[in-house]
């Protein structure tokens, strides 16, 4: 069940101070990270202050260095360009398992849900969702779009399958209304927030539509 959850709708770098705050109550936290990008890169060369190391691509690396997140975190929907295999090695070194966008074609939604649930177990969980996990054809209003993402429906199905985990906080980030078309990104983001709230108030995932249909009777 969700306890003391906080919801944010802003730039993703704000996750770092949120994790710092949650750590004071829960200790190291598992992160479920829906995103096209890893966000675990070390600080970029040329940074002249500690603060300048913090960007929307480095904050999880810094969070791990500060002891805020555990070794049981997981990405979902990754499809970014990489500089080399060292990017993946670095990602693993800061406690993340990776589910790529293409994995949904190979193993399906049900197996992705199982992998996420098994990874975080009953630990305190922070859920962070960057809207660019969704294909830019369905959510164009974001700063760093990547082609070939999941559909809104697929993301919603996975989220519903996470009900019952020990969530202590969540966010939806990187929505940029200035780039939207017919408000489709804003609609998707708002709908996902609604699903997050509903999921966090549930003790277990809902039955499949197929299972529910067997119990439906026509009263007419």
TrEMBL record:
One of its GO terms (biological process) is putrescine biosynthetic process from arginine, via agmatine. InterPro entries: Ureohydrolase (IPR006035), Ureohydrolase_dom_sf (IPR023696), Ureohydrolase_Mn_BS (IPR020855). One of its GO terms (molecular function) is metal ion binding. Gene3D superfamilies: Ureohydrolase domain. The keyword Metal-binding applies. Keywords: Hydrolase, Metal-binding. It comes from the Eukaryota. Pfam families: Arginase. Belongs to the arginase family. Agmatinase subfamily. This is Agmatinase.
